[in-house]
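Let us work through a complete example step by step.
Step 1: write down the sequence.
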Amino acid sequence: MLPATFKLCAAISYQHLRNVTGLRRQAAVAISQELSKLSCRSAGPSTWISQVRRRSSLLSSRLEEKPFSEMEMSYIKQGEEALQKSLSILGDQEGWKTETVADNGDKVLSKVLPDVGKVFRLEVVVDQPLDAVYGELVDNMEQMGDWNPSVKEVKILQRVGKDTLITHETAAAPPGNIVGPRDFVSVRCSRRRGSTCVLAGMSTTHGAMPEQQGFVRAENGPTCMVLRPLAGSPSQTKLTWLLSIDLKGWLPKTIINQVLSQTQVDFAKHLRQRMARAAEGTDCY
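Step 2: predict the structure and record it as tokens.
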């Protein structure tokens, strides 16, 4: 039978933290410390104690979180929607057709979805560990224009919580300027599930970036990149990029398809070059 003191602490941790939003963090910390002492002294169920402690910590941290505005919650939901839709598309292995296979094994596939249109899927292996690739694509996002010839500029417009961003991207004109200047406003979210990282996004709107003169406001999404260590070789990263874009304007589909599949191939090439320079210390961050 559990000691009376233990019952009291557990009850406060599990119930009071849920119901009393004004509880201060100091009280939550004290409860957690008391539970730690009791777990060492008592022969009771240590697993249950650990569960209560984790709930106490989680609930107390939630009480301290800054509440999101209605617009911020909308961005979070959009990012989550992009993530779920992207993973659903990638999870369906049927119907993919090969667009391009490079000499180094890089592969671009495509399929047509009734509610989305044509989507492209890049599958490559990067000779760098996952954390390094993730850092380049997420932490150094605004530097992408320095090494990716398809991107002129990426600017973070707003951060919402830890995992959601709103960005403005300006596309660089392709050779011959056959597509013309495009820009995007996107909501992006990142999730890490075990050793797998998912970076998802889709088009949105933001008051700080209305449509710009001289640019066609294109739309993307759902789109995502999935990063995971290569099986049997954790120093390498398998990258899968789902690309879905509506470039808008009057462009033949044959040209659009050619541009988008080549964009993915070029991205892999230049990402490897960037990562190699970073590993050698020749790129400054």
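Step 3: interpret the result. Confidence is low (pLDDT under 50) at residues 1-24, 42-49.
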